[in-house]
Amino acid sequence: MIYAKITGWGKAVPPAAISNDEISTIVDTNDEWIATRTGIRSRRVSHVSTAELATIASKHALACAGIEGKEVDLVLLATCTPSTMVANTASLVQKNIGATGAAACDTNAACSGFLYALQNATAQIQAGMIKRAVVVAAERMTWYVNWAKRDSAVLFGDGAGAVVLEASSEPSGLMGTKTGCDTEDRDILHITNYGSDIDKYKPVGPSELLFEGREIFKRAVTGMSIACDDVMQKAQLELDDIDVLIPHQANLRIIQAIQKKLDISDDKVMVNIDQYGNTSAATIAIALCEAVEQGLIKPNANIMSAAFGAGLTWAASYIRWGDRTTPINTSDYTFPAYEKSGLELVKDAALACKKTD
C-alpha cells in the first residue's frame, strides 16, 4: 500500500504582533476581557500577502524535506483569504517555490481547510496520481477584520504553515480522516461584503466577520468530538494510543472542551492560541510545526487533529508521524524587513472602520 508520509514542515509567522493591551487602544476592550473569554494574549499582523506567507512556509518545508520545488507534483493551498481569486493564489506559490509544471489549486474550507487539503493530497498520492505534494495553509485574516467590532477584532491573526507529503511504503502520514459540513445553520459564521453575490455598483463598508459565539461553541465541540470518535473507531485507536492532540486554535474553551471529551492530559495537547489568535486554516499547520519544534511530537507519534469552520465545515484526522523530527536542511528565506509595529500596520484600517461604523 502507498502512504503519504510527512517529510517536511515549515511555518511563516509575521514578526509584527498586537497585544491585548495594544488592541484596546483601537477598540473598546481590555486584556482581561479577551484572555478570559478566548485565551488569546496576542496576534500577528502580516505586512506581506497571503501568497508570500504561503511561499515562506513552503520553502521552509521543502528545505526540511531535503527536496527542491521542481520535484513537487502538486501545490495545494488552503485559504479563505487568497491574494487573488483569478488566477488562483496557489499558482503564484507554485511559481515562487520553483515547482515548475506542478498542479496548483486553492481550496476554501475556512478553518478546516488544512485538514481538507491534507486529505485531498493524500488521496492523490495513494491513488498513484502524484508522488510529492506541498500542502500549505496561509491566511491574512486581519484583512477582513472590522476594527470597530470588538467581538471579531480581537480574535484573528495572520500566518501560514506547510507540510511536504511524499509517497512511501512506510505506514505514516494521514491514516484516517472524517470531513463534513453542517449547513443547517450556515449563516452563524460568515463574512459579508465579499464575493459575487454583492452589488458591485454600490459602495460597501468594511468586511464584517459575523458569528454567533454560543451556537458555534456548541456545534464545534459536538462536531469535532463526533468526528474524532469516528476516526478513532475506524482506525481501531484507543484513547491511550493518542500521543498528541492538535486542535484548531479558535478558542481556548473549545480546545479544553475537546480535550475533556477525549480525556487527554494537558501534556499531550498543543496550544498556541495565546500567541497567534485564530489564523483560520493555518492554525493546525502552524501548531503542527511548533509541536515538532518543541518536542511534543516524537518519532512514530499518533496525532489526532480536529477543526471546525465557516460553512459549517468540520474535520478530524489521525496522523501517524514518521521516524524523523529534525529537518534535513534549513532555509534562510524569510520576511522582508519592515519597521512598522503591528499597531501601526492596522492604524489606517482601524480609523476607516470607525468612520463607517
UniProtKB/TrEMBL annotation:
Primary location: cytoplasm
Any one annotated GO CC term: cytoplasm
Region (ACP-binding), start-end ranges: 249-253
Top-rank taxon, per record: Bacteria
Keyword Chloroplast annotated: no
Chain ranges of the Beta-ketoacyl-[acyl-carrier-protein] synthase III C-terminal domain: 232-321
Pathway, per record: Lipid metabolism; fatty acid biosynthesis
Record's keyword terms, sorted: Acyltransferase, Cytoplasm, Fatty acid biosynthesis, Fatty acid metabolism, Lipid biosynthesis, Lipid metabolism, Multifunctional enzyme, Transferase
Family of the protein in this entry: Belongs to the thiolase-like superfamily. FabH family.
Subunit structure: Homodimer.
Record protein name field: Beta-ketoacyl-[acyl-carrier-protein] synthase III
Source organism of this protein record: Pseudoalteromonas luteoviolacea DSM 6061
